[in-house]
């Protein structure tokens, strides 16, 4: 082993390697030397484990890979052919052209973020979205923060700290990604009072839990699961009526925060923000990058005096929204004001796309694959914690159901995932499914080219 350690090339020797010289011509000398040192340390550990020492050329080559790995952004666009329209792992909602343009404009120069151009005095960044949100939802006031998790945390902290919040046991849920209602509650300093049972909660359960310490009744959208069979829930209206009788606010974590009627697309009813406001909630909380179809933000709408309390709380500063996403959100919301959301907001374009059109595209994709693929019926999901258990009819390109089957499916899935750009499908059993519903029609050309390349590589 000792002799293997002696084989380790010096930093200077590596700097003399042809491939490293190419690196130092492109990137700062210090960066390259730093990575060489890291690579040599790895090699020492490898030798200590009993491996032989790699050659200088091999080490130099891997230094090249390591440097490139650092300087090329690892976060890059992918094509989402998974059939899950709002996929948290794939960055949730893609944005409209107008939203992208607004974000570019807001980022490339200065902007009137907190400057009232009429009077020349300092203004609030919230004015750029508050009026639009009030117009769309019917709320008295609105506040936008970093994301919905921080919106809920801010709401509970500002209004319920050291007091009690009553939640149905069936709604004390975990959304995923570490967001659990009991944990958020604890973090806010409010005391969670769970009522009812996992499957059934009645209005009397809430009523019996109300004490002089109760600050609010909280409703939580169960997001990614559904209880079926013998169940009973309490309507928001009933909770509000109860709250009004006791002078207690109802807070509503809507999760996705839908602004349009989902039933016209054959989906179940996703509760809308407008309905919550109309029912009289104190505050409703929802995400900007789920069914709203905008950038990652948390939106709070509701009664003015409550929104004001949240805006003034020190935590509001810690979860403040930035100018870029504020611009993107405003542009997205304007699509709804203009009645063009179904045509312009990508998430809604995907939901609203007629099955016949999805099929036409699937057939075109499958055409590239010849007898490796067939088009089958399938079900797409909206995702993003909305419409749990509900699906949209779709047409899938199914690869691996015929001929060489499973091997082709797995190989192709890997090739597509490693492509430029990567194409993400769904492997189920030994079949690779590609769903055109979650892919924008503008991306069809990319998919067809990628499929051609991937298939050519198989032969
Ligand atoms: C998604 C979700 C959240 C968290 O929203 P983020 O915008 O991801 O922070 C909170 N509550 C519910 C019910 C959700 O569905």
Provide key terms for this protein.
459 residues, five-stranded mixed sheet, Aspartate Aminotransferase, domain 2, 20 helices, 45% helix, 3 domains, seven-stranded mixed sheet, globular, binds pyridoxal-5'-phosphate, alpha/beta, 16 strands, Aspartate Aminotransferase, domain 1
The secondary structure category is alpha/beta
Write out the CATH superfamily name of the largest domain.
Type I PLP-dependent aspartate aminotransferase-like (Major domain)
Query: And the CATH topology of the largest domain?
Result: Aspartate Aminotransferase, domain 2
Bound small molecules, which ones?
pyridoxal-5'-phosphate
Arithmetic mean pLDDT: 95
Please describe the biggest sheet, giving its number of strands, its sense, and whether it closes into a barrel: 7 strands, mixed
Task: Identify the strand order in the major beta sheet.
Answer: 3-11-10-9-8-4-7
What percent of residues are in strands? Answer: 15-25%
Unreliable spans are none
- CATH-level-2 architecture of the largest domain: 3-Layer(aba) Sandwich
Question: Brief description of this entry?
Answer:
With 459 residues, the protein is an alpha/beta fold. It has helices spanning 2-6, 11-15, 18-26, 29-48, 56-71, 97-108, 127-137, 148-160, 181-188, 203-209, 236-246, 273-279, 304-312, 314-318, 323-337, 341-344, 346-352, 355-369, 406-417, 444-458, and strands at 79-80, 84-86, 141-145, 164-168, 174-176, 179-180, 191-195, 214-220, 249-255, 283-287, 298-302, 373-383, 391-399, 423-424, 426-428, 431-435.
């Amino acid at each position: 082993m000792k002799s293997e350690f002696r084989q380790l090339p010096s930093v200077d020797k590596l700097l003399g390697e042809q491939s490293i010289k190419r690196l130092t011509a492109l990137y700062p000398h210090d960066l390259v030397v730093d990575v060489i040192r890291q690579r040599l340390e790895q090699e020492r550990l490898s030798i200590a484990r009993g491996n032989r020492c790699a050659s200088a050329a091999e080490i130099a080559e891997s230094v090249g890979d390591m440097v490139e790995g650092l300087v090329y952004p690892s976060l890059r666009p992918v094509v989402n052919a998974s059939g899950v329209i709002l996929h948290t792992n794939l960055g949730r909602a893609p944005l409209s052209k107008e939203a992208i343009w607004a974000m570019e404009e807001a980022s490339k120069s200065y902007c009137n973020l907190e400057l009232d151009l009429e009077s020349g005095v300092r203004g609030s960044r919230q004015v750029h979205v508050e009026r639009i949100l009030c117009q769309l939802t019917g709320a008295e006031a609105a506040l936008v923060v970093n994301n919905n998790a921080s919106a809920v945390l801010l709401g509970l902290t500002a209004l319920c700290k050291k007091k009690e919040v009553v939640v149905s046991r069936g709604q004390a849920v975990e959304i995923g990604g570490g967001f659990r209602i009991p944990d958020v509650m604890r973090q806010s300093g409010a005391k969670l009072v769970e009522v009812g049972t996992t499957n059934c909660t009645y209005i009397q359960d809430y009523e019996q839990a109300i004490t002089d310490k109760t600050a609010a009744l909280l409703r939580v959208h169960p997001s990614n699961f559904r209880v079926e069979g013998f169940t009973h829930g309490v309507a928001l209206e009933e909770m509000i009526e109860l709250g009004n009788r006791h002078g207690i606010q109802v807070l509503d974590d809507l999760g996705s925060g839908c602004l349009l009627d989902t039933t016209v697309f054959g989906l179940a009813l996703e509760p809308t923000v407008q309905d919550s406001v109309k029912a009289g909630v104190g505050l409703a909380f929802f995400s900007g990058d789920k069914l709203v179809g905008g950038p990652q933000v948390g939106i709070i709408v509701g009664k003015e005096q409550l929104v004001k309390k949240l805006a003034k709380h020190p935590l509001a500063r810690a979860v403040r929204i930035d100018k870029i996403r504020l611009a993107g959100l405003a542009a997205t919301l304007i699509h709804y004001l203009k009645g063009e959301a179904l045509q312009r907001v990508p998430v809604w374009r995907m939901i609203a796309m007629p099955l016949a059109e999805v099929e036409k595209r699937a057939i075109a994709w499958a055409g590239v694959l010849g007898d490796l693929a067939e088009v089958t019926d399938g079900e797409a999901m909206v995702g993003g914690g909305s419409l749990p258990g509900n699906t949209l009819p779709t047409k899938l390109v199914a690869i691996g159901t015929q001929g060489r089957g499973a091997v082709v499916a797995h190989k192709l899935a890997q090739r597509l995932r490693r492509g430029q750009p990567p194409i993400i499908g769904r492997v189920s059993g030994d079949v690779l499914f590609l769903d055109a519903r979650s892919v924008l029609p503008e991306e069809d050309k990319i998919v067809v080219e990628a499929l051609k390349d991937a298939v050519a590589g198989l032969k």
